[in-house]
Amino acid sequence: MKKSVLALAFLVTFFAQSTAFAQGDAKLTYYVGVGPAIDGDIGLYGLNFSNELSFKLGERTSVNPSLTFYQSIKSFDNYDDKNLEQDNSSGLFTNATFKYDLLKTKKNFRISLAVGPSFQIGSENYWVSTVYGENDQPDHRYSIERFSRLGYTQQIAFDWKSKNENRRNSAVVSMSSFDGYWPWYLMATYRIGFKLK
């Protein structure tokens, strides 16, 4: 099952690239970005680091394979016992989205919606319970889960020109969902785009 999910993710990414290169006038932009993130399942703040290739298919459409790394940094809860602040999650996401520009102004400011499959490899550990043994010494119990799963992502992007003609500025809010939980991850990313073609 895991092999078939992984194969599907790679085929979608390959198809997106092949389709883009088949277009003679397709434009290619590489985006790199960073921003805050939330793991909504176990309540963690984090950071995300993203890389995306945008293959323009038409005036308002593009296909966008991307690779994003997420790492939690702090729990929503403020525990009195520092041993309970060990909750952690991280993940590597491979996405392939289809994006449509809802709004495009004469000054080339764009508001876009994107949707597509998301494949995640990651893990999380979180506090489950505390058992008290001899001398009332606490023994904290944690659950550890590892993920290799297919879900989907939805994004809204704001994209505008830079002073440099070969650059783009972009702000993206994305929601990634897995196992019927929506949204599992919420990410806001500021990106810089580099025109490659």
CATH architecture: Beta Barrel
Distance between the termini: 38 Å
Give average pLDDT, whole number: 84
The number of distinct structural domains comes to 1
Low-confidence blocks of residues: 1-26
Please describe the topology of this protein.
Elements (H helix, E strand, L loop, with lengths): L1 H21 L5 E12 L4 E13 L4 E15 L12 E17 L5 E23 L5 E24 L5 E12 L2 E15 L2
Antiparallel strand pairs: 1-2, 1-8, 2-3, 3-4, 4-5, 5-6, 6-7, 7-8
Structure, explained:
The chain has 197 residues and is mainly β. The chain has a single domain (2-195), classed as Beta Barrel (Porin). 11% of the residues lie in helices and 66% in strands. It has one helix and eight strands. The protein has one helix spanning 2-22, and strands spanning 28-39, 44-56, 61-75, 88-104, 110-132, 138-161, 167-178, 181-195. Strands 1-2-3-4-5-6-7-8 form an eight-stranded antiparallel barrel. It is elongated, with a radius of gyration of 20 Å. 29% of the residues are buried.
